[in-house]
Amino acid sequence: MTVNTQIIKAMEERYAAKGFDPSRRVSDEDINTILEAMRLSPSSFGLQPWKFFMIESEDIKKKLGDAAPLNRPKLESASHIITVSYTHLRAHETDSY
């Protein structure tokens, strides 16, 4: 199977989670692997203009559910939530590139 075929096959088999089993948790090992992969993700000029936040707090998940009521069931039942925020770069921060 070619790489192109593998990519297309993987995309055909993806799905969006409709909910999570609150009695199950993503393992610490898997979370650490995900966070490390995110940390190593490439960006233009290697600037990586983002920050990742991992949320486990039930209180914060409830507040996120209040802010996004259509996603409340998923937010409140997920063992972890990872959010991404963009950091705006100023011209002087990219001049050396």
Keywords:
alpha+beta, two-stranded antiparallel ribbon, 2 strands, 5 helices
Explained architecture:
By secondary structure, this protein is an alpha+beta fold.
Give the helix/strand layout.
Elements: H1 3-12, H2 28-39, E1 50-55, H3 58-67, H4 72-77, E2 81-86, H5 91-94
- Total DSSP E strands: 2
For the record, give the distance between the C-alpha atoms at the N and C termini, rounded to a whole number. 39 Å
**Which class do the helix and strand fractions yield?**
alpha+beta
Largest sheet: 2 strands, antiparallel
Range of strand content:
5-15%
Mean pLDDT: 87
Radius of gyration based on Cα positions = 17 Å
**Order of strands, widest sheet:** 1-2
Percentage of residues in helical conformation: 40-55%
The residue ranges in which pLDDT falls below 50 over 5 or more consecutive positions are: none
Which word captures the global form?
extended
Oligomer: single chain
Please summarize what this structure is:
The chain is 43% helix and 12% strand. It is α+β, with helices and mostly antiparallel strands.
